[in-house]
Amino acid sequence: MSWYLKVEKHGIMKNKKHIEPTGGVLTNRMDTGTKEFNEFQALLLNKSKDRSEKQKKQIEFTARKFKMEDHQRSGEDHHQAE
Predict the structure, then answer these.
(1) For residue 51, what are the contacts with CB-CB under 8 A and spacing of at least 6?
(2) What ranges do the domains of the chain cover?
(3) How far apart are CA 14 and CA 23, in angstroms?
(4) Cα–Cα distance between 24 and 30 in angstroms, integer?
(5) Cβ(40)–Cβ(13) under 8 Å?
(6) Which of 23, 40, 61, 63 has its CA 20 to 30 A from that of 54?
(7) 43 near 3, Cβ under 8 Å?
(8) What is the pLDDT along the chain (82 residues), one digit of tens a residue?
């Protein structure tokens, strides 16, 4: 069973109303002080512990790649504005 289905099965984050983001943001700010958030975070942490070392290194590599690309793009945007 996927972690998403487990989340639905256990009722984590259920009964939440969908609220469209405003002001040009892609997502709304998450309420991190709720029981549901803490349960969801624990579920993700447990899922991450099940990963192999190879999977962990691949995720770390991909994250660094995205950070580098983002940094490069932000530098290009800064130079174009001048």
Answers:
(1) 59
(2) 1-50, 53-82
(3) 25
(4) 16
(5) yes
(6) 40
(7) yes
(8) 454 555 555 555 555 566 666 666 666 677 788 898 899 899 988 888 889 999 999 999 999 999 999 888 888 765 555 5
| pTM > 0.90: yes or no | no
Give the containing element (helix H, strand E) for 35.
helix 35-49
Give the pLDDT of residue 9: 54
Q: Give which of 47, 48, 28, 44 is closest to 36, Cα–Cα.
A: 44
Look up residue 57 and give its amino acid: K
Task: Tell me, rounded to whole angstroms, the distance of Cα 40 from its chain centroid.
Answer: 12
Q: Which H helix or E strand runs over 67?
A: helix 53-81
